[in-house]
Amino acid sequence: MQERKFKENYPIDNSIQYTNTKNFIIYGVLSVLTGSIVIGFIIGIIVALFMILVEYVASFSARGYLFLLSNPKFIPLGIVIVGILAFLMWLLIRKSPEARGGGVPRAVEMAAGKNKGKPFKIIYSYFIGSSISFLAGLNVGTEGPSVQLGAATGALVSDMFHLKNKNYYISAALGAGFASAFGTALTGLLFAVEEVRRKINPMYIASLCIAIFGSLLSSQILFDLFNVHINFFAIESGLTIDPKYFYIFIVLGLICGIVSVFYQKGFIFLRENINRSKLKIYQVLGATFLIIFFLTLGFVRKDGQPFFNGSGLGLITYIFKNPNGTIDTITTIFVLFIRFGLALLCFRSQATGGTMIPTLTLGALIGVLCGDMYLNAGLPDECFHLLVLCGMVSFFGSSISAPLTAFFIVFEVTGVTYLPYVILSLGVAYIVTKVCGCGRHYEEIAKEETLNPPKYIFLKFK
Predict the structure, then answer these.
(1) What are residue 306's DSSP bridge partners?
(2) Quick check: do 21-225 and 243-446 share a fold?
(3) Count H helices, E strands: the chain?
(4) How far does the chain reach from its first CA to its final CA, in angstroms?
(5) What is the enclosing helix (H) or strand (E) of 98?
(6) What backbone phi and psi angles, to 5 degrees, belong to 133?
(7) Which CA distances in Å does 67 have to 62, 159, 313?
(8) Where are the domains of the chain?
(9) CA distances from 420 to 203, 246, 386, 416, 451 (A)
(10) Rounded to the nearest 5 degrees, what angle is found at the Cα of 190, between the Cα atoms of 162 and 52?
């Protein structure tokens, strides 16, 4: 009876019998927490090395495109290099299917015990595949791969040392990977709970917290060592807005929600039809790489940097560092429309890379549009960047169906200053996606392709 009580309250591993409190603490709590902090520390190192590598590759790619812009005679050579990179990506995902896409759906499946794959193969494949994607300037991010690297590392370490409670370690590792990528502990915990563990218990929370602590500790050491600083929301705190302007954030939420519906339905449409097209994967990859190559060379910002190169983190930084009016309305609409299409195109190509930063970039562009519109209507200039912030969070949280994750990112990065505005716009955007029948993003894109997709895929409401 006592054993049953312990298993009901602390369901760690059915193969271990906890007949009393002492056995539970020694063989349950201490075992899980020790394994979690070791795995978290290793994850922090791997994710930090991954992000440092990608940072240098992306910087090299940007310099390469600027060189081609200054020396057009070398553009044919650039086309050849991009073609080679597309071929290498095709070869990689053919030999290592684990390298396809962002990896979050696969990481969630691993944490749920459905599909582990080969952890070591996943780790090196994501290092290679992401390097190719960022070198070519694809519109993909690092956060999805970081989550997958975390889950794969948890699986690899638990397999190597024959650890019990593997699902706990993999779930905690997934949250640790997310926390290391964003540098946000609480958000990493919420992301793991929202995406993996709907039913939680004290032991899982403890395992997750200790793994996140270890990962943030080791990753921050490496980031400081290599002088790498990543800030997705570079906005100063302290701004307040007259309550009469609150309706602006409702409108912003409505716009973000409507665009999120098309974004999610676009992903589902591609997933449903991914095998129906007569195009081969190498053809799609080649077209994707070349389209981004020519768009990058064709459209340049006022600071001389390309609009369409990379994940969009540089564009986000550019928007926050410059006052309103830096990007005119027509250009913003054009960039938003093209980046929306490129995000879906990169997903269809199955190139290695995540969708989180591209999603934040789309939200930032929506915020720029609303900011321009309301500044012309008399809104104070200092509100421009706040609208950009709310656009990022609202679109991100509603498009991946993880509002708590999006909310706590802002809470950790900016404090409580902007929470009323974020809650309002994010809540409206999330309600719009649910009214339009959108499910959980990563669950949807992880489903098997069906032969008969819905006829009216963009208008299907529940």
Answers:
(1) 300
(2) yes
(3) 19, 0
(4) 46
(5) none
(6) -60, -45
(7) 9, 46, 21
(8) 21-225, 243-446
(9) 33, 9, 12, 8, 44
(10) 70
Q: List the structure tokens of 263.
A: 């974004």
Tell me which of 192 and 12 has the higher pLDDT: 192
Whether 254 and 424 have beta carbons less than 8 Å apart is answered as no
The residues near 242 (Cβ < 8 Å, ≥ 6 apart) are: none
Show Cβ contacts of residue 175 under 8 Å, excluding neighbours closer than 6 positions.
150, 188, 189, 191, 192, 193, 196, 208, 211, 212
Tell me, what's the pLDDT at 2?
47
Q: Is the pLDDT of residue 150 over 80?
A: yes
Show the DSSP H helices in 162-246 as ranges: 166-182, 185-195, 202-225
Contacts of 315 (CB under 8 A, 6+ apart): 301, 307, 335, 361, 364
Would you state the pLDDT for residue 116?
A: 63
Statement: the pTM of the whole predicted model exceeds 0.90: no
Instruction: List, in order, residues 6 or more apart from 343 with CB less than 8 Å away.
Output: 139, 263, 355, 358, 359, 362
Phi-psi region of 137 (alpha: psi -120 to 50; beta: other; left: phi over 0): left
Q: What is the dihedral of CA 63, 67, 68, 73, to 10 degrees?
A: -160
Look at the domain 243-446 and name its fold: Clc chloride channel (1.10.3080)
Categorize the per-residue pLDDT at 453 as very low, low, confident or very high, splitting at 50, 70 and 90.
very low
Structural tokens at position 250: 């409702």
150 closest CA partner among 294, 36, 272, 282: 36
pLDDT, tens digit, 9 for 90 and up, residues 242-283: 777 788 889 999 999 999 999 988 888 877 776 566 778 888
The span from the CA of 214 to the CA of 445, in Å, is 31
Q: What residue type is assigned to position 378 of the chain?
A: G
21-225, superfamily in CATH?
Clc chloride channel (1.10.3080.10)
Arithmetic mean of pLDDT, 220-235: 78
Element (H, E) at 380: none
| Beta carbons within 8 Å of 454's beta carbon, 6+ residues apart | 272, 460
Q: State which H helix or E strand residue 373 sits in.
A: helix 356-376
Residue 354: burial class (beta carbons within 10 Å; 0-12, 13-18, 19+): buried
> Residue 70 above 50 pLDDT?
yes
